[in-house]
Write a structure and sequence with these properties.
Helices cover 29% and strands 27% of the residues. By secondary structure, the chain is α+β, with helices and mostly antiparallel strands. It has two domains: 237 residues, no CATH class; 190 residues, no CATH class. It is elongated, with a radius of gyration of 28 Å. This is DUF3352 domain-containing protein. It comes from Floridaenema fluviatile BLCC-F154.
């Protein structure tokens, strides 16, 4: 399990991958009832509080049909294939048929939980390990193998009499597994061995829940919780967090135990520093409410700190200007309320997240090596206001000149200065260095009565432009000539773009920034290449193809973030999706050959 706190985009991609391309692991409990949820997901009082993650999913047939309309034919085919495997593994292989054995009694939602590894591995299998002690001598020792991940599913029993009649019947003839029974704290557990390493366990708890696990110890831990152990339901702040993102149209709700997930991810190859682990331990969790809408999927998210945490969030929701300064045809935009504060939090977060793509030290060295400036003292120090980074398409090449190629989009960086005098001094230093060290030619001009400095490299063909907007907003453009798109202020700005308005969530007011990505106009390949660079993903073909497959069903992504209070933050995501005429149907179950 890998948890990245830094990027809302990472969360978006992961969530869409899970739901659209086949990771919605609860789908085998297929569908039939209208539902409305209370504040807590079903089974929250049975799931151990130290669980890594819990996902509750509706069993409403209409919502699953709606989900089946999203995507492309290719993504839907992959989705159906994954669901078929899950159904055949959990139901068919064990003599169950959904319509016959599950549907008649199933409640309105099911919950899937991934339990944290046991604190001790003393019960695990022992393996021999050879430790070299000298050139001619080795020491043989036995160490426990890592415990396997326990996964449990909680199915509410809405019709107890029907459930009792069905579940007590003998299994179907084609199920050749031998079932055994055992007692644990007064609860009867039925188990069957799937293979050498996997045991399928079930138990009915209090006549209200059927609990299924891939590991007998997972069932035991659920029973321990039921008998009075700490549960997800009484996790500090959990109920209050869900209330803040409540929606009566919920399709699914997700919870991630941030400290437990970080500890589980703290492997030798991706070690988190002790200071980083201490920071993570101040966080409590992240919750997401997932809602299906006519044009896509909305994620209402909240993360919060532990009640006794020393850390507190600064409430600075002041990001509302940048979309007005960018043209309506902007392809991508990310903005925030205070760049200086954002950088400080990024540096702090990098200590606790080994997956941070760009390490602060790398960025500092890159700026110093290229410009001779100190990133923190010479640049970030005066950037204490709202900021944005955007991609703007260049104007089409002149058709009359066949030698004039179409070029990619230009990059535009804007930031509101908190100290213009220092900013002007350091930008002048930058211009001087670019001229002396890289032979850039400085050209002063004016656009709409605004002074602009163009830096052009006759050798590299690179062009940079810089200037000021609205008195104290510095801008820098790089690549394609797009300065005229922002100077003077565009008449048709990004706020007037219908796709932007329909994609970027508007519920959080005031807010601390936005993210917008027009995948359809950008192109899946270009978007995949951009994200691979920004997220420092592996360049291998498999990784790139997986990313393209995840992006292919999407048209656009919008994110809005806000500091909710000193102990919680909100970020809402909307993913606008393509549609197919109708979702596919699952093939007939495959009867296992024993």
């Amino acid at each position: 399990m890998r948890k990245k706190n830094k990027s809302s985009l990472i969360l978006t991609t992961a969530a869409i991958a899970a739901i659209i391309t086949g990771g919605a692991a609860a789908y085998w409990v297929l569908i039939q009832e209208k539902y409305s949820w209370g504040n807590l997901p079903v089974g929250a009082d049975l799931i151990p509080q130290d669980a890594l993650m819990a996902l509750s999913v509706s069993t409403d047939e209409r919502q699953w049909q709606q989900l089946g309309e999203f995507g492309t034919l290719q993504s839907q085919a992959a989705f159906q294939q994954s669901l078929t495997k899950l159904r055949d593994r959990f139901l068919t292989a064990n003599g169950y048929n959904y319509q016959q054995h599950i549907q008649p009694w199933l409640g309105k939602q099911v919950t899937l939980a991934f339990l944290s590894p046991p604190k001790s591995t003393s019960q695990g299998k022992l393996t021999k390990q050879i430790t070299p002690t000298s050139e001619s001598e080795n020491t043989e020792s036995e160490t426990p193998e890592p415990e396997k991940q326990s996964v449990v599913m909680v199915l509410p029993i809405a019709q107890p009499l029907q459930a009792k009649q069905i579940l007590e019947k003998p299994q179907s003839p084609f199920n050749q597994n031998q079932w055994t029974e055992r007692e644990y704290q007064g609860v009867t557990i039925k188990e069957t061995k799937i293979n050498e390493d996997e045991t399928y366990s079930t138990a009915v708890i209090n006549g209200r829940f059927l609990v299924i696990s891939t590991d007998g110890r997972g069932i035991d831990r659920v029973i321990d919780t039921y008998k009075g152990g700490a549960s997800l339901a009484n996790t500090p702040g959990y109920s209050e967090a869900l209330q803040k993102i409540a929606d009566n149209q919920s399709f699914a709700r997700l919870y991630v135990n941030i400290p437990a997930a970080a500890v589980a991810a703290n492997t030798p190859g991706k070690q988190i520093s002790p200071q980083g682990l201490a920071q993570i331990q101040q966080q409590q969790g992240l919750a997401s409410n997932i809602i299906l809408e006519s044009q896509g999927i909305r994620f209402k998210n909240i993360s919060w700190l532990k009640p006794n945490s020393q850390r507190k969030y600064k409430i600075t929701n002041s990001a509302d200007t940048m979309p007005q300064l960018l043209p309506a045809n902007t392809l991508m935009m990310v903005s925030g309320g205070n760049l200086k504060q954002f950088w400080q939090e990024y540096v702090q977060g990098a200590q606790s997240n080994p997956m941070t793509p760009f390490k602060p030290k790398e960025l500092r060295n890159a700026v110093r090596n290229f410009t001779g400036l100190d990133l923190d003292e010479d640049l970030v120090s005066w950037m204490g206001g709202e900021f944005s980074v955007a991609l703007i398409p260049a104007k089409p090449a002149n058709k009359a000149n066949s030698e004039s190629p179409n070029i990619g989009p230009g990059v535009v960086f804007m930031v509101k200065s908190s100290d213009r005098q220092t900013a002007e001094k350091n930008l002048a230093q930058l211009n001087e260095l670019m001229s002396e060290k890289y032979q850039f030619k400085a050209e002063k001009t004016q656009l709409g009565n605004q002074p602009v400095v163009n830096l052009v490299s006759p050798v590299l063909g690179v062009k940079m432009s810089q200037g000021w907007l609205d008195g104290n907003i510095a801008f820098l453009t790089l690549g394609a000539p797009v300065t005229e798109e922002i100077v003077p202020r565009p008449k048709n700005n990004l706020n007037q773009n219908e796709l932007f308005r329909n994609t970027v969530p508007s519920e959080l007011k005031p807010n601390n920034g936005h993210f917008f990505l027009d995948i359809e106009r950008m192109g899946v390949d270009t978007t995949a290449n951009l994200l691979s660079f920004l997220l420092r993903l592996s360049p291998d073909i498999t990784t790139q193809n997986n990313l393209r497959n995840q992006l292919s069903p999407m048209q656009a992504i919008g994110v809005t973030a806000a500091v909710n209070d000193e102990r919680s933050t909100r970020f809402d995501i909307f993913v606008k999706l393509k549609k197919v005429n109708e979702g596919g149907t699952l093939p007939a179950p495959k009867v296992p050959q024993r």
